[in-house]
Amino acid sequence: MCGIVGAVSTRNIVPVLVQGLERLEYRGYDSCGVAVYAQDATPGLKRARSTARVAELAEQVATTHLEGTLGIAHTRWATHGAPVVHNAHPHFSHGTGLDAASKPGRIALVHNGIIENHDELRAALQARGYVFDSQTDTEVIAHLVDSLYDGDLFEAVKSALTHLHGAYAIAVFCKDEPQRLVGARAGSPLILGVGKDGQELFLASDAMALAGVTDQIVYLEEGDLIDMQLGKYWLFDKARKPVSPAQRPVKTVVAHSGAAELGPYRHYMQKEIFEQPRAIADTLEGVEGITPELFDQQMNHQPGANAARVFAQIDSVLILACGTSYYSGCTAKYWLESIAKIPTQVEVASEYRYRDSVPNPNTLVVTITQSGETADTLAALRHAQSLGMHHTLTICNVATSAMVRECSLAYVTRAGVEIGVASTKAFTAQLAGLFLLTLCLAQAKGRLSDAEEQRHMKAMRHLPAALQAVLALEPQVMAWADDFASCENALFLGRGLHYPIALEGALKLKEISYIHAEAYPAGELKHGPLALVTSSMPVVTVAPNDALLEKLKSNMHEVRARGGVLYVLADADTRIESGEGLHVIRMPEHYGELSPMLHVVPLQLLAYHTACARGTDVDKPRNLAKSVTVE
Ligand code: AGP
């Protein structure tokens, strides 16, 4: 989603800003821009903006010789106003009066988040003569800062923030103070980067934007405000009290560049699907046995938040997540209830945060998030905490994220940076973390014998090899994808533990191939969706050889009897053979409880190859973003 990079330096900073935007591209965006204080023959605010890719912005910058030592840049994912150039950030203020629009700009600003009271602020500013160039909520902040500016940018921003309702991370500068950059965050992440020479300072929404530029990072906390000048900065907390360096220490953060090598792959998504054996091996590395300490590992371990004590105390689990992460939570519910016998509720974070619920202080609140930045999941966590539920744990792929910082306990998966918008390796890594959590809770409740622990550990150690064998099915899945490429609808069926995998398969297909796909627990077929089944509706069935297989076979007969064409993922030992209207791919083994982690892989490949056949932008599907940092 939206991304911010800003810098105050002594060298031309534009190449660094543009490079930062390139590193943020993976988050998804529909326009981008960069602004500087130019000290050329006509000094002042100058900018370049584009609704194409950052590469096009880089060309514009080179052609127009945009240069400056102070600047800000942004990738925008449209919320208020269409993705057109005049809505792209940075936004400039330009004084008041009839000729306002032609007056040179004074304030330059970029913003992530949503200003909820932008309509009333806009009306008040318009009444004072401010003229707006865009439909964005962001532009009101630029004019608001301008209206409060009296020679001190920091004071103007500080005062402007008191008028804003909503979520924001901002970076702002003023042409009258060409060595000063001010930033603030509330509800959206923002970091400070300290350059190698100690002089150059950066602001960014994500440490990855600064990969290769600096690894010296300070994480701003909720409500923080920062005043930056060459080689020095001052931080203030939400009460506007000065913050000492000890309170926000500089951390060395190894952020890998988003522009990772594609190697032999056509897309990052394909690469990430094939990285799953390694992602799972890395995620499970060092796990010698089941012990609650696995969940104590995290950056700012909260005093008293000891997993052993928490696991003994809790009597239920509440999982909060969105999208693919929600489906990993739905899978974990089956494990938690069947193996650990702990009542588990899974909720879509954006629903939970706004509904009345009955809090239980002995619940373990588990958030699941690849990015650790998802606004709805963070808000749901805070909502649960506000209801008195303080046992919190996250399964997250980013160790430095807001989610890891805000939860007491964490299991940081090691899937590595995921660039494709469609989550693949992060999902299977989440499942690995959730299976470990299940075993730890089972152990804490006295429901895991040593023999069972050994059996599960052996199965987990086998996962990388098992995944590798499933990936070898790719040519067979490609043959299915040829059939799917010309369809506009598809149905996915699963039962029990594999129903969430059917949901995930359908989500993958719709998000990157734009084929309308639905998933149902197979037993529900005759309660409605069977009406959709015709010969032009492919029906994907996840059919492992488990206790529900015979029931699933009956559901498959119901589909065949209506002329529906079945695409079945069967286990090695399942007696289902290919035939008329029935295409079978046989999984290499039967995987027991860990089966969802293997069965999802052919579904990821099916979505990927179908999307390729349809010629969509696989890694950056339309309208979607990698990190959903607004609600
Ligand atoms: C998955 O393919 C999606 N793009 C999306 O559903 C994603 O899983 C969701 O936005 C949650 O993201 P998170 O894991 O970073 O919180």
What's the gyration radius in Å? 26 Å
Q: Reading side by side through the largest sheet, how are the strands ordered?
A: 3-2-4-1-10-9-11-15
- Structural class, from secondary structure content? alpha/beta
The helix content is 25-40%
Give a list of the ligands.
Answer: 2-deoxy-2-amino glucitol-6-phosphate
Notes on the structure:
The protein is of the alpha/beta class and 631 residues long. It has 3 domains: 3-259, Glutamine Phosphoribosylpyrophosphate, subunit 1, domain 1 (4-Layer Sandwich); 262-461, Glucose-6-phosphate isomerase like protein, domain 1 (Rossmann fold, 3-Layer(aba) Sandwich), CATH 3.40.50.10490; 472-614, 3-Layer(aba) Sandwich (Rossmann fold). Helices cover 34% and strands 22% of the residues. The chain is built from 18 helices and 25 strands. The strands form 4 sheets. The chain has an 8-stranded antiparallel sheet, covered by helices on one side. It is globular. The site of 2-deoxy-2-amino glucitol-6-phosphate (AGP) has 14 residues, from helix 9. Residues 307-447, 480-621 form the SIS domain. This is Glutamine--fructose-6-phosphate aminotransferase [isomerizing]. Pfam families: GATase_6 (PF13522), SIS (PF01380).
